[in-house]
Amino acid sequence: MKILTPKPFYFDNGTSAVLLLHSFSGTSNDMRLLGRFLERNNYSAYAPMFAGHGTKEPLDILELGSTEKWWQQTQAAVQYLKEQNKKNIYVFGLSLGAIFATKAVEELDDVSGGGVFGSPLYTGGFHGIKNAFLTYAKKVYAIQQDLTEVELDSKMRLVESKIDAKLTEIRKTSVDVSEKLAEIKRPYFIGQGTSDKLVNPDAASKVAQEVKTSQLHLYDAGHVLTINRAHNQVESDVLNFLENN
Q: What is the DSSP string of 11-27?
């Protein structure tokens, strides 16, 4: 099985733009369906790739990526859209991306609003995210046929030795962002799957209570709302949110 290397995308089709931030073990590919949908509805869509992501080495995420870098990339992406003369810039994020989308809505003057899918804010432990990342790493290594069983085991031990520190770093940023939720005055979309196994689905309601400008949307689906069975409804709801804010 051949893995196609994911690439960032920018669909330029409208004076309003939506920045789409992917998840911890994901890539811009998870945002492509939503990006194309927005493009068809006269919105520009930009999905950059977080540092360490989109390679065939899961360790890159843990060793080359950091919350500081990912936040810098978020700010740079907003600046890029501003330079493209976009009048209204919205930022949406999935899982890890939700943290930085929310931070952008809280802190960046050029952002008109935004939202989250499967957000880890207020979710408590990150056990689901850790297990999902380990499963992802093993799958990526297994596809690389040249790895022996011993090499695979060695790689996975290395991943397991580094994952907790990275999740602690992400958790700290998540808590910092959560503390400012009540200050949000811009339109804020919350999309949450009721059968999400990676984050606590009940946390979305707590976030909605904190953010007075929020719209909470629940879906009978799992974590990756942008590509799972809920994606058509999610796309429709996001468009409605953009059109009315």
A: E--SSEEEEEE--SS--
Measured between alpha carbons, how far is 191 from 217 in angstroms, rounded to an integer?
Answer: 5
List the 44-47 sheet strands across, edge first: 9-11, 44-47, 16-21, 88-94, 111-117, 188-193, 214-219
Q: How many CB atoms lie within 10 A of CB 69?
A: 13
pLDDT in tens, the chain (245 residues): 345 578 999 999 999 999 999 999 999 999 999 999 999 999 999 999 999 999 989 999 999 999 999 999 999 999 999 999 999 999 999 999 999 999 999 999 999 999 999 999 998 778 889 999 999 999 999 887 688 889 899 999 999 999 999 999 999 999 999 999 999 999 999 999 999 999 999 999 999 999 999 999 999 999 999 999 999 999 999 999 999 98
Listed residue (220, 210, 217, 219) closest to 238, CA to CA = 217
Spans of all domains in the chain: 9-243
**Run of H or E residues at 205:** helix 203-210
CA nearest to 184, candidates 72, 104, 92, 98: 104
Quote the CATH superfamily of domain 9-243. Alpha/Beta hydrolase fold, catalytic domain (3.40.50.1820)
